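debug: dumping io for the single-chain case to check the tokenizer round-trip. Nothing else runs in this session.
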Amino acid sequence: MSDGISDDAEDVVGVLTERIEARFAMGMDQLKAMVAASPTANPDATDAVTWHGLLVEAQSALDSAEDDLLAALETQPSEVDDPTVGLAHRVNTAVTARDGRALVVRWLLGPDAPGKKDLAAERLTRLRPRTGPAVQTTAPHRPAGTPAPAPAPTSSRRAGRAVR
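debug: decoded output
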């Protein structure tokens, strides 16, 4: 990887953790506590903490997959059997997941990253969870004796599709 992140897997999480801490001027434990206390106060911090957690999980899964593969390879004769090949595929999948999550964290930390200052970014901002009141999802309370409203009419074409 570029941007000061080496290809050594163990450096990826460490370097990105340092960048998150520098970006928000606090340690990860403090940042996690802040986000847990008020997840909507700083959406950027919430996103960074969420994706950092996913990155740490992916790195842990990768470490486990690599350990399992190495243990299997130590017991193999010269030819590798199918279960061991499956473990190698598991390692590859874990690397892909970890690298993808690392890319998301890097994107979140880059203020000038592609897509952050254009129309698509504005639309994404509008999709973030709102802090205001939720839309009412239950029927409003009607006083006793008030008839229920008639259901909305459906077209015969629409009704025909439902019957099929």
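debug: round-trip ok. Confidence is low (pLDDT under 50) at residues 156-164.
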